[in-house]
Write a structure and sequence with these properties.
The complex is a heterodimer. By secondary structure, chain A is an all-alpha fold. Chain A is 73% helix and 0% strand. Chain A is built from ten helices and no strands. The longest helix of chain A has 37 residues. Chain A is elongated, with a radius of gyration of 23 Å. The two termini of chain A are 28 Å apart. Chain B has 13 helices and no strands. By secondary structure, chain B is mainly alpha-helical. Helix content of chain B is 73%, strand content 0%. The chains are: A mainly alpha, B mainly alpha.
Chain lengths: 278, 339
């Protein structure tokens, strides 16, 4: 191959591929292993606290359940909850923030604006814990609590951005052409506002994955016997000196998921940054 | 940097003085400061209102939960009257609001403890962990950010950026557990249980939680400081400093760190919120008698008065510290305009 024929990869490609690959791998494992594995995730057996080995790759827990199966059985519970906990506030926050940014009603603007500031003032995890306690423990409460808290962060970003986008030439042009306000909003303004909120959502995803596990770790998440990383670490923490594998493997799974998102978003930021410089 | 090669020259004046905005902007400054203060008060009011509303939105009757299932109707009504829950919503809020300024945040539904008493007992431990974490994080971040900024190799920057974002993706409670396993069981550097409240002796309980908190603080802090340092490096006065041959320490402090500090200080104040969340988890793992453990206990017993009080205090702490941070950031660098 001549040097000319070699394609120059844009910067950040390595991060994007690695991150997406890591995420894809754990999702695939989460799909396949509980279905085709030797054990059932909630199957109680007399082989309690076996150390990792040939028959039980990650060992067994207090009730003799296979940790390997349980770790991958929890993939969709954890990542799915975190995904919903990012997608809902992203959507709501982007729309509310954009509407605030383009609205001319100063009273509504400052009223909802200070409400947003008020919600954002609370420490994220504390507020979510309090909300979950009022809503009752469980995954749907976690998603609802994450949405009630996080929409305000997205709304704040979207509002700032919408003010700028609203004054851009292409929006003015669309208005001059006489397009309907709803069309301008959804086709011209929101796509440009959401590029910013989506970038934030990606970095938020890592935080939310950890938060979901932390809530379960504090006893506010899933109901037993459902396998979930935070809850597994919580159970394993009490016997960590006796059987380290019951807590360490679910912990590594959280790290794997979080790091895959982090690397992906790092790569994406790099590529976008490069594109905007050109 | 070449500054160390020629460090004999002495600067005759502080060049940074020139960067400051002249006094004619004083009035505009006062106006923005007052505006920022008023906004903080508005936000503080919302914080109180939201924390107060939480209890009222909760499904089910907290009084019935507190009294148990076999409580008579008279008992429920009597207790509801005692806590003023039979009043209309806004009357209740007014009472709560005025009570706050009289140092009264209500009493627990279960243990009859006053919320202010709970806060006074347990808040110092939490604040101590936060203070230690912040101090350690600043100490660690400054040399990291400085050395990454000064080494102009792209590989170093890339490694720095990747490792910081990976470090952010590791959950603190998992790290704390590993730390406890390593330093508590293998090395026995951390006492397994118990706590002593006095200053030097409590450090042996608090150093590991603070260090674990640093794993989420240092990446954020050092990244902001790094990008702020990179901005500073592009300024002309840095070149002047190099040409003048300013001493190494003076160069690092006056020409690089000092002009770059403002965004970091503002960020540190904003990060108090993140740190409070991390500290709650640390208190649970290390069995420290802080406010976070009280919160989790109150959540599990559905002691809403305590939950409400703790959530509100944390919200107010964040509002207060971010105001102070903005102020400090401005004083450190007058070029910053207050948002």
């Amino acid at each position: 191959m001549s040097k000319k024929g070699k394609k120059v990869r844009p910067e950040g490609t390595l991060g994007i591929i690695t991150g997406a690959g890591m995420m894809g791998a754990i999702l695939l494992a989460g799909l396949l292993i509980p279905w085709f594995g030797k054990y059932d995730a909630n199957e109680i057996s007399s082989d309690q606290l076996l150390s990792p080995g040939g028959t039980h790759y990650f060992g067994t827990d207090m009730l003799g359940r296979d940790v390997f199966t349980r770790v991958f059985d929890a993939v969709f519970v954890d990542i799915g909850t975190a995904f919903a906990g990012v997608l809902i506030p992203l959507t709501v926050g982007t729309i509310v923030g954009t509407l605030l940014g383009i609205s001319r009603n100063r009273r509504v603007n400052s009223f909802i604006g200070s409400l947003i500031d008020g919600i954002n003032a609370f420490p994220f995890l504390i507020f979510v814990i309090a909300l979950v306690s009022f809503l009752g423990a469980g995954l749907s409460s976690i998603i609802l609590a994450l949405s009630l808290v996080n929409w305000a962060r997205y709304a704040r970003i979207a509002r700032t951005r919408a003010v700028v986008v609203n004054q851009q030439g292409y929006v003015e042009a669309a208005r001059t052409l006489g397009y309907k306000p709803t069309r301008i909003l959804f086709r011209h303004i929101i796509p440009n506002v959401s590029s910013e909120t989506r970038a934030y959502a990606l970095s938020d995803f890592t935080i939310v994955i950890i938060a979901v596990a932390a809530l379960s770790f504090l006893g506010l998440g899933v109901n037993p016997p459902q396998a979930e990383w935070g809850a597994m670490i919580k159970d394993g923490a009490n016997i960590i000196t006796l059987a380290w594998w019951t807590a360490v493997f679910p912990g590594l799974a959280i790290c794997w998921a979080g790091i895959s998102v982090a690397i992906f978003s790092e790569g994406l930021t790099k590529r976008i940054g490069e594109g905007s410089q050109q | 940097m070449a500054s160390s090669a020629i460090n004999k020259g002495k600067p005759t004046e502080d060049i940074l003085v020139e960067q400051r905005v002249p006094d004619k902007n004083r009035i505009a400054l006062r106006r923005t400061l007052i505006g920022r203060f008023v906004r903080s008060l508005t936000v503080a009011f919302w914080v109180m209102f939201i924390a107060f509303s939480l209890l009222r939105f909760s499904p089910g009757d907290p009084i019935r939960t507190a009294l148990g299932t076999d409580a008579t109707e008279e008992q429920v009504i009597a207790m509801r009257e005692k806590y003023g829950l039979d009043q209309p919503f806004f009357v209740q809020f007014y009472d709560y609001f005025t009570g706050f300024f009289g140092g009264n945040l209500g009493t627990s539904f279960f243990s009859e403890r006053e919320v202010t008493e709970v806060l006074r007992m347990h808040l110092p431990v939490t604040l101590m962990i936060i203070l230690l974490s912040m101090g350690a994080a600043v100490m660690i971040s400054i040399p990291i950010a400085l050395s990454v900024a000064l080494s102009r190799r792209p590989a170093v920057t890339y490694f720095f950026r990747t490792s910081t974002s990976i470090s952010l993706a590791i959950p603190g409670f998992f790290l704390a557990l590993l730390g406890l396993l390593l330093f508590g069981t293998v090395f026995t550097w951390v006492p397994a249980a118990g706590y002593e409240g006095n200053f030097p002796s409590n450090l042996k309980y608090l150093w590991l939680p603070a260090l674990v908190n640093c794993f989420s603080l240092v990446p954020i802090l050092s990244r902001v400081l790094h990008s702020s340092l990179m901005d500073t490096l592009g300024e002309e006065f840095v070149e002047t400093g190099v040409i003048r041959g300013v001493g190494k320490l003076k160069f690092y402090w006056s020409y690089m760190l000092r002009p770059s500090l403002a965004p970091t200080v503002v960020l540190v104040s904003y990060m108090v919120g993140i740190m409070i969340g991390g500290t709650v988890v640390m208190e649970m793992i290390f069995s420290l008698p802080g406010i976070g453990r009280e919160l989790i206990d109150a959540v599990s017993t559905r002691d809403y008065a305590i939950v409400q009080g703790i959530v509100m205090i944390f919200g107010l702490i964040v509002v207060f510290t971010s105001f102070i941070g903005d102020l400090l950031g401005y004083l450190l660098d007058r070029r910053v305009t207050l948002s």
